[in-house]
Amino acid sequence: MRTVRIAAIAVFGVLLLSIPSQILAQQTQPQQPAQQTDVNDTQLRSFAKVYVQIQKIRQTYEPQLKQAKTPEEGKQIETEEVLKIHQAIEQEGMSDENYRRIIDIVRADEGVRKKLLGFIDEEKQKP
Question: Which one, of 127, 95, 111, 106, lies nearest residue 14 by Cα?
């Protein structure tokens, strides 16, 4: 159950930042307004690093999942992908809950979202 939750959080984070902000603003409402700005640049940079790592992990495993010959093989590949995603989150000193909290903040605050997108662009430029 935990691996499914980690995968869902990671996928949501990846998809979240690819949705145009106007659509995102129309479809989402902040869940806890008091916490919405409770994130600093260090946390956003860590999130950006994890986000880029998750994109790379997904790019590696998606073709393998599509080529899986049996459901069992697909499940094994998916489990390995989720493990790598979880390791990327933990390696950056984050928890699944922190990652999710930042997703909520970014979803609710356009200024934070723009800042994070800048950090993600910087992270993608690194070798």
Answer: 106
**What CA dihedral angle connects 41, 14, 8 and 29, to 10 degrees?**
70
In a domain, 108, yes or no: yes
Judge whether 83 lies within some domain.
yes
Burial of 104 (0-12, 13-18, 19+ CB in 10 A): middle
pLDDT digits (tens, 9 = 90+) for 26-69: 333 444 444 445 899 999 999 999 999 999 999 999 999 999 99
**Domain membership flag for residue 40:** no
- 13 is a domain residue: yes
Domain of 88 in residue numbering reads as: 2-29+48-125
pTM here is 0.71
